[in-house]
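Thread title: Can someone regenerate the structure for this chain?

I was given the following input by a collaborator and told the matching structure tokens would be attached. They weren't. Posting the sequence so someone can regenerate them.
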Amino acid sequence: MTALLLASLAAVQATELKLSSLFSDGAVLQQQTRSAVWGWAPPGTTVEVQGSWAEGARATARAGASGYWMTKVPTGKAGGPFKLTVTQAGKTLQREVYLGEVWICSGQSNMQWTLAQCDGGRPGGNMAEVQGNNPMLRRYFVPLRHSNVPVADVDRPWEAAGGAGMAEWSAVAYWFGRRLQEELGVPVGLITTSYGGTEVERWTSPSAVMSKLSPNGQMPLDGNGNWRGSTLYNAMIQPVLPFSARGFLWYQGESNVGRAEQYQMSFPLMIEDWRRWWKNDDMSFYFVQIAPHNYDGSAKSAELREAQRLALSVPKTGMVVTTDLVDNLADIHPRDKFNVGRRLAAWALAKDYGMGVAYSGPLYQKVEAMTGAVRVHFAHAQGLKAGPKGLTGFQIAEASGEFKDATARIEGETVVLTASGVQRPTEVRYGWSAIPEASLFNGAGLPASPFRTDQRPLLTAGVRW
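Best answer:
Regenerated them for you:
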């Protein structure tokens, strides 16, 4: 643990026993794991932690010189409410908690976007359908804040779904959690920590930014001398560390469009960085590909979507495609958060909970050269079909030649492409624009991700901080 982090932890007054606010009444702890529990106590004193769900659900810790302590308590199967009891030198704290499934939901404004801002998030829906009481669906909201130093704690309660307070819930997180809770029948806890208009580097730890992204090993500064990276990691991720969770949800990228090539490095770096700090490489990471939007009219946003698609090479990741969910290309905040949340949930249900649900649209695998044509192979291509307007958005080219619009036809789980004047096509692009329109779907109705097969220089090549 770095000296900077120790200093931030010490900033919490350690004159008496205190729990992190993540362990307030109504908290959801990750089931069937060793759940981290932490807080502060007078330095050198012993803290005992006991969960009422099992006799063996107990652990001890000793407060360090700063007063900070942390231990891990075995959790059992989902249920509750249970009692979490923490004692130190005769002082006792007791919280009512649940055991269930916990997910950390982060990103920029499309993750932050509330149910009230999109009339409940379901096309044709309204706020009434999200205001029903559901004590088994709960959230912990991390306040919006930047900081150049790690923040130890934030004073927030856990909240149960229901009532007028739903207006402030993240719409994507809500619909993800609601589907999970309905399908699994267990308590679901959502830790929402997102901030609009922010770059991925702000969510990455100082050590990762300075060692991997900075040309001189120092934190890049803006024109006012403030940090350009890590300020949200410090203020909105650090207080959550190391809360035990099944995985992460991520909806971000719009603010990195101008540096899409660098995103190929910075986005996977952040994923690996978070897993490193959580000390858990098995945590799932599911993200949303940015939606069609005009931006500056160039293909820079297509390059960002490609960077996101390439991030699927990182183990235990999954991507939701949104090219069929936008009804206003001038709005960077598509109102349909219902389908985004449910598609994220499909990844979790399939990959984390072993349910037989379709979770991905077609993903490019390889190209096969043919006489006067090229065949594109896809994964997740069962029942491949065209959209209502037919197969559009495909382009092909000979090596280093001009890309031309292609005529496409489906053959089994592949697409065969031809174009007038292109005799030996070897390169393919699909949906390569700022405003791609989905035209290729699988039998589950999930759209194919935009992609390119060529390695030509990008518009954002070499653009850095």
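The two ends are 28 Å apart (CA to CA).
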